[in-house]
Structure formats: C-alpha cells, structure tokens
Design goal:
alpha/beta; Rossmann fold; 2 domains; 7-stranded mixed beta sheet; binds S-adenosylmethionine
Amino acid sequence: MSEDKPLGPPWTILKLLRWTTDFFKQKGIDSPRLDAELLLAHVLDVDRIHLYTQYDRPLIEEELSTFRALVKRRSRREPCAYILGSREFWSLELAVDPRVLIPRPDTEVLVETVLKLLDTDSAGHLVDIGTGSGAIAIAVASERPLLQVAATDTSEDALDLARKNASTHQLEERISFFEGDLLDALPGTWLPLDFVVSNPPYVEERDRDDIQPEVRDFEPANALFAGEDGLDVIRRLIPQARLSLRPGGYLLFEIGHRQAEAVRDLLATQDFEDIEIITDYGDRDRVAVARKPAASSA
Ligand SMILES: C[S@@+](CC[C@H](N)C(=O)[O-])C[C@H]1O[C@@H](n2cnc3c(N)ncnc32)[C@H](O)[C@@H]1O
C-alpha cells in the first residue's frame, strides 16, 4: 500500500495492521500499532478488541479507500483524536476537533485532586477557566451532583463544543458556560467561588519548535502558548482567583513540569496558603493546589 495507490488484494485486517504499523513507524509516529488499530476499528465500526478476532477478514474496496484516507491524514501527523472526532477523558467520551485542545490523561490528576477536596454532597460554586472541550468541568460535574459548575473560555468555538459535550452527558443543566478572559468572564452572581480550577495555556514560547508536530501543527496555539516562560496566563490567573475565591476557597491549576518553583513563588506572593505541587502519572510536577487564607477579607 502506498500513500496514493489503491491497496492490492487480498488486504486482511492483520496484513493491513502490519503494513500500517510499519508505515507509521517510518513517519515517526509514537504509537504506530495502537493508532493503526484505532483507525481500522473506526472504519470497520467495531471495538479494537474485535480486530483480533477477525484477523483474516478481508476488507472490501470501500472500507479500504476510507481507511487509506485516514492513514494518509495520520501520516501527516494529524492527531488520531481529531481524525476520529473523539477522545476519552475520565471514562467519558468527548467530541474533539481542531477548535479545542485534546484532553490529556495527566489532566485527570487535576480532576482527582479536586474531587479529593469535595465531599460527594458538596454544593459550592466551582469554575473551570479555559474549559476547551469541557473536559474538567464535565468530569467534576459528573462526579458531584450538587456542585454548581461554570466553565469559561475566550474561544466561542471551544465553548460550542464544550456545550455539545455537556449535553451528550446530560449535564447541560448543571454547567453554565461563559465567554471571556479568565475570571472576567464570570457574572458577579457566581462570586465568591469555592473552587477555581484551570488547565491554562502554559507552554514556553521557546518550546514551539521542539514540540511534536501533532501538537504544534494541529492543536490551537491559544490553548498552548503563554509567553516566554509559559507563565503569562498563570501570572494573571492567580491574583484574579485570590479576589474571586471565598476565604478558605481553593485554586488548582495544571502547570508545566519546569514551572513548580516559579508558581510556588507567585502563589506565596499573593498570600495563598497550603501550597502543594502534585505530580502526574509520569512523576513530573503537574498540578498546583493552594488555599486562600480562611481569615482573609479580600
Ligand atoms: C490547555 S487548554 C485546556 C482545555 C481543557 N480545559 C483541557 O484541559 O483539556 C487551555 C484553554 O484555555 C483557553 N484560554 C486561553 N487563554 C484564555 C484566557 N485568557 N481566558 C480564558 N480562557 C483562555 C483556550 O482557548 C483553551 O481552550
């Protein structure tokens, strides 16, 4: 199979998986076999596991031609999640497209940390700043039925998709969406907040040329980059959260693995307490947690 020529018969599932895996390897793709399986399962409309039980099944020309088109897109480093139109986050299927960042497994650490601080019957106000696909807001709302959840983004396109995802999971009545810059997006009636959570843009500008083509060339730049040191958004978020939280309220946000020290300093300068940095599944610094002093008036 070449990128442009039709597949030659007989192309069985096994043969196609082997060929595509090799092809993706040559193209520098990180998980060649997995991606080949995901794309083929999508074309055949079966679960991945079913591919293993039908290795000798030949594909018909229509299936081959659809698969060939997807392989071509992936070989140009378009992320699988955009090709398939969805990604699982917190065991919830979310629609994704190039208007939003693809939710990452490491962001589940942020969700876990938030949930540990909330009883199952907690009924406070939580805002997810820069909601993108809605991943964090939807995951938290799905786990805490009495919590009032708001989600904001500067991108109206992202909010459209986040609303759609909330509705897919029957959470459209539970999450309010607002367009705007950080906490300015939120109507005053939502204040004071019990939780401000965010996975903000935090990639350093100098990393632009080093990051994977999947990210650099396909994911929205405004979801990724935040100035020279990657802290431009976080630097503005911290004082805004300080003003919007109730005394004793929590601020939690994702950080880059080289940013822990700078972020600790920024939080301490704004008089946050109980500052903690939580590591991700790869043991890298990933989530900052801090509390507004309980006795604080402003
Ligand atoms: C890293 S993505 C996170 C998306 C989603 N929360 C997730 O974890 O998958 C950052 C999001 O913040 C939004 N964003 C960027 N600057 C913003 C700002 N100043 N105010 C609000 N949202 C912003 C981007 O549009 C993007 O959707």
